[in-house]
Amino acid sequence: MSAYSDRLDRLRATMKATGTDLVALGPSSHMIWLSGVSPHGDERPVLLLVSQDHAGFLMPALNADAARTATDLPFETWDDAEGPDAALARLLQAANIDGSPSVVIDETMRADFALLLLDALPGARRRFTVDTVGALRARKDTSEYDALKKSALLNDAAMRAGFEALRPGVTEREIATIVRDYYKAQGAAPEFTSVCFGANGAFPHHAVGDTKLAPGDAVLIDTGGRIDGYPSDMTRVGYLGSAPEGFADVHTVLESAVQAALAAARPGVRASDVDRAARDVIAKAGYGAYFLHRTGHGLGLDVHEPPYITGTSETVLEEGMVFSIEPGIYLPGKFGIRLEDIVILRADGPEILSGMPRAAVVAGNRDA
Amino acid sequence: MSAYSDRLDRLRATMKATGTDLVALGPSSHMIWLSGVSPHGDERPVLLLVSQDHAGFLMPALNADAARTATDLPFETWDDAEGPDAALARLLQAANIDGSPSVVIDETMRADFALLLLDALPGARRRFTVDTVGALRARKDTSEYDALKKSALLNDAAMRAGFEALRPGVTEREIATIVRDYYKAQGAAPEFTSVCFGANGAFPHHAVGDTKLAPGDAVLIDTGGRIDGYPSDMTRVGYLGSAPEGFADVHTVLESAVQAALAAARPGVRASDVDRAARDVIAKAGYGAYFLHRTGHGLGLDVHEPPYITGTSETVLEEGMVFSIEPGIYLPGKFGIRLEDIVILRADGPEILSGMPRAAVVAGNRDA
Fold first, then answer.
1. Which of B137, B153, B179 is the last residue of a domain?
2. Alpha carbon separation from B354 to B7, B152, B157 (Å, rounded)
């Protein structure tokens, strides 16, 4: 319980510093991070409310006993017949919240949970978690780094298993299954696996289909698993036999973009400067219109979490932050390439968690 | 596309009847039901807005090509650099929404998606989907019935596989794995599997742990899989060797409660009357304090959806509605029993989808 107690203390200090009266978390990784409670997720409102005076849950009565095994924080319970309103009123009273409080809302909770709370606090000023829970979660401690490193190294092996299985006629789905089974065999849970053959790679979020691999096709695999509560996320590319026209040129541009982002990422630098470093390389090479997304996202309990490495982010990078660097170029009808690594920001720059090179994997003749 | 076109027509008729100017759906089963679009779920706002004049998506640019393969509805796209505000303004203009519209919000969408929309419509009156999309989804058509029936019969077999594997020393987790593997072997996806031995059954939402089965323990299995897009959900109970003290009495009370609910459920009856029918049986038997939850929930694309069979529901049941009847009695430190069947309401009463009796399964000597 002491890790959670420490996090609660740090949250309350951050709430004071930001003038926040109340933090409201739904069933989410925010709640897990702060309390260890991972409630049954359904349409019954569950909230964890934190003020300087109180920290406690709004909890459906039928989940209370199970949740009790995970936390000592107090519950205000409600049942299906009475509904949550009275229990929420008791919880807000315990938290000593009235007037026009400044409230932080867990942006990931269901709309009806958030509106239940906001309707009970008509004068509230609201914002999301970015500068409170989000900021605290962005700087990883040693135990979180260890878990993320372990997850990344497992992911290297899962990625290699996927590329090693490439052969003419194999489908995206078959490769994804091999990758997912690899996680399971190692005691990890598959988190997501995108396998793109040929022109499918030009859809940045293509998942998997029954497309068969043919000689000369590009291959993109973006995959992550979860072990000990922490996920991985990495993208590598390759091709079967010979590279499609233009592939090597685009790969070289993206490798330069990754290097530029790595060189730019230092404590005290804005996230937008890291995005710009990668984006400028791609634009100068003439592919600016084909880089469709931000350069990166944070990684922790969630696969996507702060800090976001975007062109407009004001976030100042700090030591201990973990995020992806993943520039991509997507050529419709041809192929897409994305090179993605997860880094932890050290005092002197980023440390890449993966041990797998970003070079293109030539199926049947791998150089990785 | 014609199923979606028909649903859109029916939604617009319902919007007229309820005075609804705008329906806003997030990435959810509501969106799948109305459009077939199942977008990549992350923190980038995706909305499907429907008015009488327009139906279209707010869509992150990097997901647009993939989503385009699922729908012909128009997109207003946005990218990470500009953010979603301008695209949302264009979409609201296309939908011809201004002034103080009456807006239906998908209650399941992320809080930040809902607040993005509500902040753009400061005069809006809002409610959730219960009397629009929810009402339409509650009455299943023939294709949905066929899918739910197929899913229920598969679930019977998965349930039997779980009970057949009971033996002294086996853990809850091992039984859950057997059930889940059964779904997979049949081309279905495990949806949820709760296996409770002994006193764990007194936690209504206990999932699985490493508790080992001993002679005289009660066993509760609540499980569902998903095939062809539609889930199943059923609870059966049993015991190893001999029944714990009081088990047979509680089982008999619950069977009577199920029968009372089945007898009460008719088109035109309030959902609360069905809840009361089951609850009265349990209360008269002296177990009223141990029935901790509502009598049932709807089942369709979602495992939990309208209609909810609660003590306070004003919902009038209609032909074609599909819902669970699942009274339970939870005796702390002893055992819990819940008997759950899914029914479709026909003109003359409920038809149970499962073919498995609700009798207690005696492990090693099953009567089911």
1. B137
2. 28, 5, 10
CATH of the domain at B158: 3.90.230.10
Say what the pTM is: 0.79
Closest to A300 (Cα-Cα) out of A134, A188, A180: A134
Query: Is A368 among the domain residues?
Result: no
Q: Among partner residues A42, A202, A203, which is closest to B304 by beta-carbon distance?
A: A42
Q: Which structural domain range is residue A50 located in? A: 3-137
Burial per residue of B85-123, b for 16 or more beta-carbon CB atoms within 10 angstroms, e otherwise:
eebbeebbebbebeeebebbbbbbbbbbbbbbbbeebee
Residue A32: inside a domain: yes
- 8 Å CB contact between B177 and B199: no
pLDDT above 90 coverage of chain B, percent: 85
**In a domain? residue B159:** yes
How many CB contacts within 8 angstroms connect chain A with chain B? 102
Report which residue type is found at B198. G
Rounded to a whole number of angstroms, the distance from the CA of A338 to the nearest CA of chain B is 13
Do residues B225 and B288 both lie within one domain? yes
Q: B10 and B117 share a domain?
A: yes
Tens-digit pLDDT profile for residues B153-163 = 999 999 999 99
Q: How far is B203 from chain A (nearest CA, A)?
A: 6
Going by the DSSP 8-state scheme, the letter that residue B181 receives in this structure is: H
Of residues B163, B140, B150, the one with CA closest to residue B358: B163
Cβ proximity of B218 and B319 under 8 Å: no
Report chain B residues whose CB lies below 8 A from the CB of A63.
Answer: 204-205
Indicate yes or no: CB of A304 within 8 angstroms of CB of B42: yes
Q: How far is residue B293's CA from residue B284's CA, in Å, rounded to a whole number?
A: 17
Going across the sheet that includes A102-105, the strands are A75-78, A55-60, A47-50, A22-25, A102-105, A125-127
Burial call B195-228: b when 16+ CB within 10 Å, e when fewer? bbbbbbbbbbbbbbeebebeeebbbbbbbbbbbe
pLDDT tens-place string over residues A61-115: 988 988 998 999 999 999 987 899 999 999 999 999 988 999 999 999 999 999 9
Q: Which residues of A touch B332 (CB under 8 A)?
A: 65
Indicate if A114 and A168 belong to the same structural domain. Answer: no
Split into its structural domains, chain B has a count of 2
B313 contacts B307 by C-beta, under 8 angstroms: yes
CATH number at residue B90: 3.40.350.10
**Domain assignment present for B368:** no
Domain boundary residue, one of A137, A155, A178: A137
**E strand segments, chain B:** 22-25, 47-50, 55-60, 75-78, 102-105, 125-127, 189-197, 218-227, 230-231, 234-240, 296-298, 305-309, 322-325, 328-331, 335-338, 341-346, 349-352, 361-363
* pLDDT value, residue A292: 87
Show the DSSP H helices in chain A as ranges. Answer: 2-18, 29-35, 61-68, 85-94, 111-120, 133-138, 142-164, 172-185, 247-264, 271-284
**Which one, of A203, A169, A151, A138, lies nearest residue A345 by Cα?**
A138
Q: Do B160 and B80 fall into the same domain?
A: no
Is the domain of A242 the same as that of A328?
yes
User: What is d(CA B267, CA B167) in angstroms, rounded to the nearest whole number?
Assistant: 44
B310/A65 touch (CB, cutoff 8 Å), yes or no: no
Backbone angles phi, psi at A296, to 5 degrees: -175, 175
Are B146 and B133 in a shared domain?
no
Residue B192 φ then ψ, to 5°: -165, 150
Chain A environment of B312 (Cβ under 8 Å): 80-81, 83
Whether residue B97 sits in one domain with residue B27: yes
C-alpha B192/C-alpha B235 separation (Å) is: 12
Whole-complex ipTM: 0.78
pLDDT band at A306 (very low <50, low <70, confident <90, very high): confident
Please tell me whether residues A110 and A168 are part of one structural domain: no
